[in-house]
Write a structure and sequence with these properties.
With 225 residues, the protein is of the alpha/beta class. It folds into 2 domains: 103 residues, 2-Layer Sandwich (Nucleotidyltransferase, domain 5); 78 residues, Nucleotidyltransferase, domain 5 (2-Layer Sandwich). Keywords: Acyltransferase, Iron, Metal-binding, Transferase, tRNA processing.
């Protein structure tokens, strides 16, 4: 089995070829590019396929991060995964950035109890979700003001995970200072979580219509110019 895994939801442009039956990464690339996912993603995919000695005809499915994260990056990854899936008639699974971080944390850290994954969302917001020590979701992912996030932590929370964890006003230990798990963690997250390959933004887009430049509507009694 060969699953192509894509992540463009944050500052990384990543892909790997994963064998879920053997729980093995056959080849992987993770580039920290900031922006420009649309221009770089298929080159990263080509590098991974070449390293693994595989072609698109060898794929049995796809996995893609659906957010929350960068609006543009999320759209790039989801569109690419959908396009390949349609062309090859393959299933595609979406996993969230929060879930990928939860999987990485449970694989790398001795977790003593429930923990919170916190990602910086920009515009003064944090994305948060709680997981059990075994990595199971305990609530829904949600966005909140960063200066209010500490009030939303579970009383039994034992660990903070993600790139917004260090900024919390608490003495809880922190780990995995990233906005998304490694591409290997994304691949393994699909064994525990499964979503439709549709963007998960959790907040409104930054871009707003330029209403100041809108032309006035013609009244019904006026003739068109």
């Amino acid at each position: 089995m060969s699953v192509l895994v894509l992540d463009t939801a944050a500052r990384f442009c990543s892909a790997c070829l994963y064998d879920p039956a053997a729980d093995a990464i056959r080849a992987a690339r993770e580039e920290e590019i900031g922006r420009g996912h649309a221009e770089r993603l298929m080159g990263v995919v080509a590098d991974v396929m070449d390293e693994a000695g595989a072609g698109f005809g060898d794929l049995t499915g796809l996995t893609v991060t659906i957010g929350p994260g960068s609006f543009t990056g999320i759209r790039v990854g989801v569109a690419a995964a959908r396009g390949i899936a349609v062309a090859r008639n393959l299933p595609v699974t979406g996993v969230t950035t929060l879930e990928s971080l939860a999987v990485q944390a449970t694989n790398e850290t001795r977790v003593e109890g429930p923990f919170a994954v916190l990602i910086a969302g920009g515009r003064g917001q944090i994305f948060m979700q709680h997981f059990s020590a075994a990595g199971e979701a305990l609530d829904e992912a949600r966005a909140m003001a960063e200066d209010e996030a500490d009030k939303h932590l579970r009383p039994d929370c034992a660990l903070l995970v993600g790139d917004a964890a260090a900024g919390m006003e608490t003495d809880l230990p922190t780990t995995v200072d990233r906005p998304v798990g490694t591409i290997g963690a994304v691949a393994r997250a699909a064994r525990l979580f499964e979503h439709a390959p549709s963007p998960l933004y959790l907040r409104g887009a930054d871009a707003k219509p330029q209403t100041g430049f809108a032309l006035p509507r013609r009244s019904d009694g006026e003739d068109a110019a």
